[in-house]
Design a protein that fits this description.
alpha/beta, Dihydrodipicolinate Reductase, domain 2, 2 domains, 9 helices
Length: 330
């Protein structure tokens, strides 16, 4: 198997975890790591035994000296565009951590510039690359519950991240809800039409911005989704996927705590998740590899991801103005 050289940009608390994924993926060769924070760079280098000549504080220098073919962009979202543009100009394909950007205009520019340069842009929407949502999607495609009518989703967590997330104006919507929005699209197989959101910050919150939200989403084919989310739950914690109830004409699918059930009247059957050799970011990175080798669009391409990202910013607009907002492919 021919390996592809990939440059890792951003090796902070979360970003550096990509290094282990690269090292354990036989398709990839780690060309080097980059971070403007020398302390983070040194920490990652020590933890993963990366030689000094493969560690850089400059993206341009790293590309020039290591000659990679691809890049993982795992820096904070507001810097995704600038670093991705450097990569595209150098002829690199890019996989970027979600969200694609912290604003829709930069996201659009990234998609357009990648197309202009003839390069691939993929978003690592890793939640959809897990066995449970893929099992549910398959069951729905097989007609297990018939035509979907509506879904209820509840997400409750209380993480103490520190750093930039706790300074965001809408941390839950911008940094987390994108996962659930993308799962809504993936599981239903439909795209959103409108969204109505109410966000607020509970009095005990340790976030600067709104860390809780209730919203209603209308999808094509008259599918309605209700979503309640919080990043400051002091009570019960759901899984990171959240609790899902998907209702159709022939029954419902319940996804809770990693287990999936089909229910119809008095009948309850557990659905065994499909077996997968890779999941999560390992499968996301493998999809990126296959995309390059097969010269095709990624499942979670930047262009497709604009639908998921548009839900984030439509939610924020709705929360600010107190009215439903139509969602357009921007």
């Amino acid at each position: 198997m021919e390996k592809i050289k990939i440059l890792q940009v951003g090796v902070g608390k979360f970003g550096k975890s990509w290094i282990e994924i690269i090292k354990k993926s036989p398709e990839w060769e780690l060309a080097g790591i980059v971070d403007i924070n020398r302390e983070a760079l040194q920490s990652a280098a020590q933890e993963y035994t990366i030689p000094e000549e493969k560690c850089f504080v400059s993206v341009e220098e790293a590309i020039k000296k290591t000659r990679p073919s691809a890049m993982i962009n795992a820096i904070p979202p507001r810097f995704h565009k600038d670093v991705s543009f450097i990569a595209f100009d150098a002829g690199l394909d890019v996989i970027v951590e979600k969200p694609l950007s912290d604003n829709i205009k930069d996201a659009q520019k990234m998609v357009s510039y990648a197309d202009e340069k003839g390069k691939k842009l993929m978003v690592s929407q890793n939640y959809r690359y897990r066995s449970q949502p893929r099992t549910i999607r398959t069951a729905i495609e097989k007609g297990v519950i018939g035509k979907i009518g509506y879904a209820l989703i509840n997400f409750q967590k209380g993480p103490h991240f520190g750093g930039f997330r706790e300074e965001m104006e809408y941390p839950l919507l911008i940094d987390m809800a994108i996962h659930h929005f993308d799962l809504m699209r993936y599981i239903t197989g439909e795209n959103p039409l409108s969204i109505y959101a109410k966000s607020w910050n509970p009095c005990w919150s340790w976030f600067k911005g709104d860390a809780a939200v209730h919203l209603s989403v209308e999808f094509s084919n008259n599918i309605q989704v209700s979503y309640a989310g919080s990043w400051v739950s002091t009570g019960r914690q759901t899984s990171w996927d959240g609790d899902w109830e998907i209702y159709g004409e022939n029954g419902s699918i319940v996804w809770k705590d990693g287990r999936i059930y089909f229910t119809a009247e008095e009948k309850i059957e557990e659905i065994e998740p499909i077996k997968m050799e890779r999941e999560d970011r390992y499968l996301s990175l493998y999809e990126f590899y296959c995309t390059l080798k097969e010269n095709r669009a990624p499942e979670t391409s930047g262009k497709d991801n604009l639908y998921s990202l548009s839900m984030v910013f439509a939610s924020i607009e709705s929360a600010k103005n107190g009215i439903p907002v139509s969602i357009r492919l921007l």
